[in-house]
Amino acid sequence: MAEPISHALAEIQRTLDFTQEFDPSSSTVALSIGLSDYPAFRFLPRLVAKLREAAPGITLAVRNFTSRDDAISMLDAGEVEMTIGVPPSSTGRILSAPLFEERFVCILRKDHPAVRQGLNLETFLSLTHLLVSPENDCFGVVDTALAKQGLKRQLALTLPQLYAAPALVASSDMIATILEGVVEASGQAERLYVGSPPIELDTVPFTLSWHRRNDTHPAQRWFRDCISGLFAQDPARKSG
Questions:
Q1: Which residues in 85-117 are b (16+ Cβ under 10 Å) and which e?
Q2: What are the residues whose beta carbons fall under 8 Å from the beta carbon of 233, sequence distance 6 or more?
Q3: Cβ neighbours for 92, distance < 8 A, ≥ 6 positions apart
Q4: Is residue 146 domain-shared with residue 230, that is, in the same domain?
Q5: Shared domain check, 115 and 146
Q6: Same-domain status, 10 and 78
Q7: How far is CA 230 from CA 25, 33, 49, 71, 240, in A?
Q8: Domain count of the chain?
Q9: What is the per-residue pLDDT across 78-107, written as a single tens digit (0 to 9) for each?
Q10: 124, 138, 173, 188: least CB-packed within 10 angstroms?
Q11: Contact (Cβ atoms closer than 8 angstroms) between residue 28 and residue 35
C-alpha cells in the first residue's frame, strides 16, 4: 500500500502547487533532475550557481541515468521532474526541447606516429581503440558506421567512465572517438591530438525532457526556463 499512497500524496501536492503563485526568491520547493554524465559535468556547476543566486531556498536532487529507457521510466514514475540527455524515444506523454548538439572527435596522444601519417581510414582501422560505453556494450556508434561499410575495428579497452578516456589515451597507443566537449573539459587537451573521424558520424543532440503532466507546473516551468537560458548563453555549445 505504501507506494500507491505515496504516489497519490505526490499528485495532491502537485495540484496544490499549481494553485500557488511561484516566486523563486522565496520558494522552498524541492526539484529533481536526471542527468547523464556529460551534461552533469558540463552544465551542473552553472545550474547550481544560478539556483543559489535566484532561488536560494530551492532544494535540488540530481539522479543519474545511462539510457533513454531509464530516463522515460524515471519521468513516468515521478522520480525526477525533468531530464537532460539524448532525446528519449518518441512518446506523446514525454515532452522535449532541444538544448545543444555535440560532435565526435578522434583523440590520440600528441606524439603518436599516426598523427604524422595523417588519420585516414586505413590508419584508423590499424589502431587499437578505446570505447566508452555507460551501458557496458562492446558496440558503439563508430562500430555501427563501420559495419555499414563492411568494416570492423579492434577494441583494446571498453569502460563506462567517459571522463577517464582522455587521460588513458594520452598515456597509451590507443585511439578514442569521443564527444569534443569531453576533451575540452578533461584537462588533457595539451597532451592530445584532436581531429575529425575518417568516417561520417552524426552529431549527438541533447534535450531537456519532462512529463506532460508537469508541463504547466509553475516551479518546474521556471526551472526549465532557467536551464534553456543557461544553454542559450553558452557560445561554446552549438544550439540544437
A1: bbbbeeeeebbbeebbebebbbbbbeebebeee
A2: none
A3: 212
A4: no
A5: yes
A6: yes
A7: 18, 15, 11, 22, 14
A8: 2
A9: 999 999 988 877 678 999 999 999 999 999
A10: 138
A11: no
Please state, in angstroms and rounded to a whole number, the distance separating the CA atoms of residues 93 and 98: 17
What are the grid coordinates assigned to 211, written together? Answer: 512529463
pLDDT digits (tens, 9 = 90+) for 119-178: 999 999 999 999 998 777 888 999 999 999 999 999 999 998 889 999 999 999 999 999
Which position has the higher pLDDT, 137 or 209? Answer: 209
As a whole number of angstroms, the distance between CA 95 and CA 227 comes to: 15
Grid coordinates representing 10 are 505526490
Residues 168 and 228 reside in one and the same domain: no
CA–CA distance, 140 with 202 (Å, rounded to integer): 13
C-alpha cell at 220: 518546474
Can you tell me whether residue 118 is helix, strand or coil?
coil
Choose among 14, 17, 22, 24: nearest CA to 78. Answer: 14
10 Å CB burial of residue 2 (0-12, 13-18, 19+) is: exposed
The reply to whether 7 and 90 lie within a common domain is yes
Report the predicted TM-score, pTM, of the whole model to 2 decimal places: 0.80
DSSP 164: G
In a shared domain, residues 144 and 220: no
Find cell 590507443 and name the residue. Answer: 174
What range does the domain containing 109 cover? Answer: 104-195
Q: State whether 136 and 174 are in the same domain.
A: yes
Closest CA to 229 of 29, 22, 49, 36: 49
